[in-house]
Amino acid sequence: MARIEEEKGSLLQFAPFQSAVDEGFWHRLSSLKLNKLGIDDSPLPITGFYAPCSHSQVSNHLTLLTDSLPADDNEQSVTPALGHGNRNRCSVPGIIYNTNTLEAYHAVDKKSLLKEEAKKIWEDILSGKAVEDSSVLSRFFLISFADLKKWSFHYWFAFPALVLDPPAKLVELKPAAQWFTSEEAESVSAACNEWRNSSLTSDVPFFLVIITSDAHATVRHLKDWEACQGDGQKVLFGFYDPCHLPNNPGWPLRNFLALICLRWNLQKFNFFCYRENRGFADLALSLVGEALVTVPQGWRDCQYVPNAVGWERNRGRSISRNVDLAKSMDPTRLAISAA
Amino acid sequence: MVLSQRLHEAFKGTVERITGPRTVSAFKEKGVLSVSEFVIAGDNLVAKCPTWSWESGEPSKRKPYLPADKQLLITRNVPCLRRAASVEEEYEAAGGEILLDTEESEGWLATHGKPKETKSDEDENLPSMEALDINEQNCIQSIPSYFKSEEEEDIPDMADYEDPDNLVETDPATLQSTYLVAHEPDDDNILRTRTYDVSITYDKYYQTPRVWLTGYDESRMLLQPELVLEDVSQDHARKTVTIEDHPHLPGKHASVHPCRHGAVMKKIIDVLMSRGVEPEVDKYLFLFLKFVASVIPTIEYDYTMDFDLGSSSR
């Protein structure tokens, strides 16, 4: 028993991303479908939003809002580009595959679709695009069927994650407040708060934490990795962690690991799961871990695409979700409730 | 919807259309806010409590008197670990502080259990203004009648959606079946964690902020507004919380009716001033949210104020 425990402990396990769809998203999808798209069922680019975990007891979600979809009129809205700089809405690129019938929805080849989407992440890692715009590492998609006669929406999210084989091992994982010295912790908090408060960086979810030998911390862009080497500096790979669990990092770290081991040829490194409390860095909730990654066989072949997982589970089961919005969309019911 | 409520809404809508927004400050005199004061107070809330942000809402519902990118304030995914009703019962049983909801003591706390006379007076102390009379009975009726078609609906059988391909992802690195929500304090295996999106809008008629609640269950599925009432202090669930169209978002949402907000805020401001604290208008929303916390005691939104309320201290 003890040995099993030990083995389990050394395997790095990630808490899956969870989806949340605002009612407004379905309203806009319906109006797009009726007024603009018609029977056109080609994939539609959308924007999902997430933020670091901000409470010790609940995880944050990948959220779809009204603004996740383009407006159906061609009028340019007055709003600035997609909440850029809004710290509570870090944009993540996604795609919605909305089918025209329930049959087509059930007939979607989920395995190959996941593989196709994972390939985009893989290519962005190889090309270096993921270093420039790290949000592509958390790329997601969903399949859906909008039953506009019944105001009922079937949908299923996937958060593609490249599978490391053999899986990454965890050397240690502890609250960041314990991993850093108190001096370092103070400096890391200040640097992270500054990163989060600047409209230029507040929605950049992957970053580097550099700590000099005199315990001074700075947060830098991934593309500055080369410049941050040497001089006995500690470098940690940080990301906005939507997960609140004390013993597991959240899902965005998965593709980040793939990037780190492939791009910078690292096999052993420290990662930093950045979490907040009431909107400010909370190092007791944040985690620092040391991961051990072996570049899987085949990853150096140019034609290779790794396996991927990531279909969202609903209460632990592989099932589709359904939301019924007849109450807020059915004109008859609205008329009755207004009478 | 109840007729008196409908009539009042029509009246309120007309008044809002024909009167301009408040421009003169009456913050100290009446406890109300002008539009620009609402924006100032909102900016300060966003700066001090960064879990709140300004949003523009539905473009079609945009209010011309507010900046396009500052139509409403919102904080998402706010945990609500317990039902207000059950907390209150325990608290009251323990003889703790409870909200005194009488004319004389609006929004303030009694520290020695619930006084008997408050209970018996309840009907006389309804939050009514001339034009509005949401009484206990009406409210109780209005909610079920809005949702009465609930039973007709088939609750979708989960098995119907079981994936035919038998999509099994065996991956040792995926954390399995751990609740990704709060650890439950009770051992009866009923998950009680809900999350809320809490938004604040400007109510032009009452010239005060107004709070709206959108609830989600533990798997982040939309909660029926009637279930939201379980998270409202039981005194208010029967009186001041109504379910209405959101002024900036789609759908019906539960809202703390603003008819008495001005009066309550005025009382709070008076108490502060009697203590020699000069309240500042940019702190309005902190005071307001503190007061709203008595209505929704278990929804843990942020209104932390680690600085003083007024100018006298600075």
TrEMBL record, chain B:
<keyword id="KW-0813">Transport</keyword>
<keyword id="KW-0072">Autophagy</keyword>
<dbReference type="GO" id="GO:0019776">
    <property type="term" value="F:Atg8-family ligase activity"/>
</dbReference>
<dbReference type="Pfam" id="PF03987">
    <property type="entry name" value="Autophagy_act_C"/>
</dbReference>
<dbReference type="GO" id="GO:0044804">
    <property type="term" value="P:nucleophagy"/>
</dbReference>
<dbReference type="GO" id="GO:0061723">
    <property type="term" value="P:glycophagy"/>
</dbReference>
<dbReference type="GO" id="GO:0000407">
    <property type="term" value="C:phagophore assembly site"/>
</dbReference>
<keyword id="KW-0963">Cytoplasm</keyword>
<dbReference type="GO" id="GO:0015031">
    <property type="term" value="P:protein transport"/>
</dbReference>
<dbReference type="GO" id="GO:0005829">
    <property type="term" value="C:cytosol"/>
</dbReference>
<dbReference type="GO" id="GO:0000422">
    <property type="term" value="P:autophagy of mitochondrion"/>
</dbReference>
<dbReference type="InterPro" id="IPR007135">
    <property type="entry name" value="Atg3/Atg10"/>
</dbReference>
<dbReference type="GO" id="GO:0000045">
    <property type="term" value="P:autophagosome assembly"/>
</dbReference>
<comment type="similarity">
    <text>Belongs to the ATG3 family.</text>
</comment>
<keyword id="KW-0653">Protein transport</keyword>
<protein>
    <recommendedName>
        <fullName>Autophagy-related protein 3</fullName>
    </recommendedName>
</protein>
<keyword id="KW-0833">Ubl conjugation pathway</keyword>
